[in-house]
């Protein structure tokens, strides 16, 4: 377990999430892939906070917590995004009777 | 260290395997359950990275709320006929993440990371696990909190102190965002006639 292996695991998770977001046609599956990417990024910032030194570590020990603060913000924004996104999914399903992305072209016509 | 390494590799294999399942399995319900497995594995990573608070938050918010919300959404909109179909972009959808992953791995391996200096490691870990206020004073002194000023600095460096101190502006912005998302979600999910 080192910074490099941790970052590579996070990068693999991100790539898998990106593949899912690009390759799926179901809106909910795309949302789940986006959540995977959010988690990968959170993992990255927490791993950096744990292993890599901030410049100010000697004067202000609180700087080692910056990554964790970032992670808190990412988790909050992800929660807000999911609440809104699923609201849109329900609205789409009500009006189009489908959660397939290729049929969600209402704004085009 | 060996014990932590074993846990790390078990978590890594679980997370990556479950993540592959999330994007590859056709049954949406099963991929939502596998997504919860990924979330739990990431919570384990947080605990390994001495971020205990984040591990708990991850379990509460992701495993407890977001996974359930996904399962709820799948049940409400389930389309048995179609399931989790791939779309027509298969080749670019494989190529682009693969290229990105290669670039990220090269960047990670070739970067010159500046690790936390050995003598600061104990202090950093005590601060990150928010343990400064609960462990004995002898332990704190042994880990390098030798002066009263250093100890006070660490006691004022909790996650909560940072959120209402140095990061108060983004904190307030995020609270506004949550409020807006709440109202927006309500407005979107409300039926037309009401």
Written description of the protein model:
The complex is a heterodimer of chains A (109) and B (194). By secondary structure, chain A is an all-alpha fold. Chain A has three helices and no strands. In chain A, helix 1 runs antiparallel to helix 2. The longest helix of chain A has 31 residues. The mean pLDDT of chain A is 87. Chain B is mainly α and 194 residues long. Chain B has three domains: 86 residues, Four Helix Bundle (Hemerythrin (Met), subunit A) (Up-down Bundle); 38 residues, no CATH class; 37 residues. Chain B is 72% helix and 0% strand. In chain B, helix 1 packs antiparallel against helix 2 and helix 2 runs antiparallel to helix 3. Chain B is globular and about 65 Å long. The mean pLDDT of chain B is 85. Classes of the chains: A mainly alpha (109), B mainly alpha (194). Chains A and B meet through helix 1, helix 2 and helix 3 of A and helix 1, helix 2, helix 3, helix 4 and helix 5 of B.
Question: How is the secondary structure organized here?
Answer:
The complex is a heterodimer of chains A (109) and B (194).
Chain A: H1 3-23, H2 27-51, H3 66-96
Chain B: H1 2-24, H2 28-48, H3 52-77, H4 90-110, H5 121-128, H6 137-142, H7 148-155, H8 159-163, H9 168-189
Helix pairs in contact in B: 1-2, 2-3
Extract low-pLDDT stretches of chain B.
none
- Give the averaged pLDDT of chain B, no decimals: 85
CATH superfamily of the largest domain in chain B: NADH-ubiquinone/plastoquinone oxidoreductase chain 6, subunit NuoJ
Number of helices of chain A: 3
Low-confidence stretches of chain A: none
Query: Which percent range fits the helix content of chain A?
Result: over 70%
CATH topology of the largest domain in chain B: Four Helix Bundle (Hemerythrin (Met), subunit A)
Number of strands of chain A: 0
How many domains, in number, for the residues of chain B? 3
> Separation of termini of chain B?
60 Å
Helix proportion range of chain B: over 70%
- Please indicate the percent range of residues of chain A in DSSP E strands (runs of 2 or more): under 5%
Largest sheet of chain A: none
Number of helices of chain B: 9
Proportion in β-strands of chain B: under 5%
Average pLDDT figure of chain A: 87
Radius of gyration of chain A: 18 Å
What's the CATH architecture name of the largest domain in chain B?
Up-down Bundle
Please tell me how large the radius of gyration of chain B is: 22 Å
């Amino acid at each position: 377990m080192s910074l490099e292996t941790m970052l590579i695991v996070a990068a693999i998770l991100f790539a898998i999430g990106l593949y899912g977001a690009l390759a799926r046609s179901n809106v909910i599956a795309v949302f789940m892939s986006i959540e995977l990417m959010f988690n990968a990024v959170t993992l990255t910032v927490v791993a950096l906070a744990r292993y890599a030194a901030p410049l100010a570590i000697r004067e202000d020990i609180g700087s080692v917590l910056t990554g964790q603060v970032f992670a808190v913000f990412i988790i909050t924004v992800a929660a807000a995004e999911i609440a809104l996104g699923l609201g849109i999914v329900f609205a789409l399903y009500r009006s189009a009777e489908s959660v397939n992305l290729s049929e969600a072209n209402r704004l085009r016509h | 260290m060996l014990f932590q390494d074993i846990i790390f590799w078990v978590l890594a294999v679980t997370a990556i395997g479950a993540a592959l399942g999330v994007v590859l399995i056709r049954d949406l319900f099963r991929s939502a359950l596998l997504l919860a497995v990924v979330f739990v594995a990431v919570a384990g990573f947080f605990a390994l990275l001495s971020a205990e608070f984040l591990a708990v938050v991850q379990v509460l918010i992701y495993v407890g709320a977001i996974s359930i919300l996904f399962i709820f959404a799948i049940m409400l909109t389930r389309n048995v006929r179609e399931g989790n179909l791939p779309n027509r972009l298969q080749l670019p959808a494989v190529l682009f993440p693969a290229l990105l992953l290669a670039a990220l791995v090269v960047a990670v391996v070739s970067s010159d990371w500046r690790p936390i200096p050995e003598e600061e490691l104990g202090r950093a870990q005590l601060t990150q696990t928010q343990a400064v206020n609960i462990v004995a004073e002898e332990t704190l002194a042994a880990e390098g909190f030798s002066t009263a000023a250093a100890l006070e600095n660490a006691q004022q460096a909790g996650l909560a102190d940072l959120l209402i101190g140095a990061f108060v502006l983004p904190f307030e912005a995020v609270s506004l965002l949550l409020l807006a998302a709440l109202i927006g979600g309500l407005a979107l999910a409300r039926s037309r006639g009401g």
